[in-house]
């Protein structure tokens, strides 16, 4: 395999996973490889779904996942608060599991060039441009996280601007819910070096409430890997939003448009997985772009789709 898509999932996000896979099949193609990285061992429904799809596989290999979980543990172990806070709030297992997405960088992983999407995403357009940009960059993103650096770094840390210039912070940070990158960007010696830098005080710049997102941004920026953000590089008239909190998108033919331009993806960020589970169980709960989610979730079983009374 060369180009393909990763996501992170378990049975808790099953309904969202099905919607994502269906949206990829319709709007990207039936043959693009999709690889599901397990969030944890709750995988009964996920395994059944993988068995039904010829282009989807489950990256269920402990030898690939373990080094990245260990790296995350070592990295956050240098932070003055993170592990202690996660243990006190019983969030340690969940926080560390989010870092399983890093397995996409493993030399044994199946995809050479990849786009990672969170499971709470619908892909609504071609992703060819993101793959094309990987010919020139190590990372390609398409979001506006750079406008909100507080969700990536601890802006109160006096060391932050000693490590990264402000201009870089406001132009290069990205949301870990969607990014394109390459396999083997962070070999073991580089990971060890990053942990060393964190251990001598740089860990305080991480925003531990954003766990994998904060650490991934640090990994890329500290390693000086070239990045392209399409939201900053596309012509203004071609740029679209991608977040569910933007309520001005216009639906047409089960797609979304921003000022007449088709979205590449929609991220239902901030919405609980329980909301989608309850809606799919028949509860009449409203949220932005509910109908388009239900369209893709029940694309191949429309008779099961819940409708509002």
CATH topology name, in short, is: Spore Coat Polysaccharide Biosynthesis Protein SpsA, Chain A
Helical/strand content category:
alpha/beta
Strand and helix order: EHEHEHHHEEHEHHEHHEHEEEEHH
Rg, nearest Å: 19 Å
Report low-confidence residues grouped into runs of 5 or more: none
Give the N-terminus to C-terminus distance in angstroms: 46 Å
What is the averaged pLDDT score? Answer: 96
Q: What's the CATH class, please? A: Alpha Beta
Name given to the CATH architecture: Alpha-Beta Complex
Q: What is the number of beta strands?
A: 12
Helix content: 25-40%
Largest sheet: 5 strands, mixed
Please name the fourth-level CATH homologous superfamily.
Answer: Spore Coat Polysaccharide Biosynthesis Protein SpsA, Chain A
**Content of β-strand:** 5-15%
Query: How do the strands of the widest beta sheet line up side by side?
Result: 3-2-1-4-7
Task: Write a concise synopsis of the structure shown.
By secondary structure, the protein is α/β, with parallel strands linked by helices. The protein contains 13 helices and 12 strands.
Give a structural overview:
- The strands form four sheets. Strands 3-2-1-4-7 form a five-stranded mixed beta sheet, covered by helices on one side. Strands 9-10-11 form a three-stranded antiparallel beta sheet, with no helix packed on it. Strands 5-12 form a two-stranded antiparallel ribbon.
- Helix 1 crosses helix 13 and helix 3 packs parallel to helix 9.
- It has one domain: Alpha-Beta Complex (Spore Coat Polysaccharide Biosynthesis Protein SpsA, Chain A).
- The chain is built from 13 helices and twelve strands.
- The chain is of the alpha/beta class and 309 residues long.
- It is globular, with a radius of gyration of 19 Å.
- Helices cover 36% and strands 15% of the residues.
- Strand 9 and strand 10 form a beta hairpin.
């Amino acid at each position: 395999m060369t180009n393909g898509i990763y996501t992170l999932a378990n049975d808790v996000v099953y309904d969202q996973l099905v919607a994502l896979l269906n949206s990829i099949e319709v709007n990207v193609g039936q043959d693009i490889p999709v690889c599901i990285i397990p969030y944890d061992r709750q995988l009964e429904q996920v395994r059944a779904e993988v068995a039904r799809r010829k282009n989807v596989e489950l990256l269920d290999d402990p030898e690939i996942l373990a080094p990245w979980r260990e790296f995350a543990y070592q990295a956050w172990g240098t932070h003055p608060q993170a592990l202690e806070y996660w243990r006190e709030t019983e969030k340690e297992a969940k926080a560390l599991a989010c870092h399983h997405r890093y397995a996409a960088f493993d030399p044994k992983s199946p995809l050479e060039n990849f786009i990672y999407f969170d499971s709470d995403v619908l892909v609504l357009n071609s992703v060819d441009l993101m793959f094309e940009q990987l010919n020139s960059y190590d990372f390609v993103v398409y979001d506006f996280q750079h406008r909100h650096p507080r969700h990536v770094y601890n802006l109160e840390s006096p060391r932050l601007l000693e490590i990264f210039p402000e201009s870089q912070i406001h132009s290069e940070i990205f949301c870990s819910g969607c990014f394109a990158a390459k396999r083997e960007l962070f070999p073991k010696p580089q990971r060890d070096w990053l942990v060393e830098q964190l251990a001598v005080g740089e860990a305080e710049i991480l925003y531990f409430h954003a766990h994998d997102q904060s650490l991934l941004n640090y990994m890329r920026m500290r390693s000086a890997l070239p990045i392209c953000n399409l939201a900053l590089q596309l012509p203004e008239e071609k740029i679209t939003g991608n977040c569910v909190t933007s309520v001005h998108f216009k639906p047409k033919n089960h797609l979304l448009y921003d000022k007449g331009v088709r979205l590449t993806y929609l991220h239902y960020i901030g919405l609980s997985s329980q909301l989608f589970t309850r809606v799919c169980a028949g509860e009449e709960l409203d949220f932005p772009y509910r109908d388009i989610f239900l369209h893709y979730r029940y694309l191949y079983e429309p008779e099961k789709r819940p409708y509002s009374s």
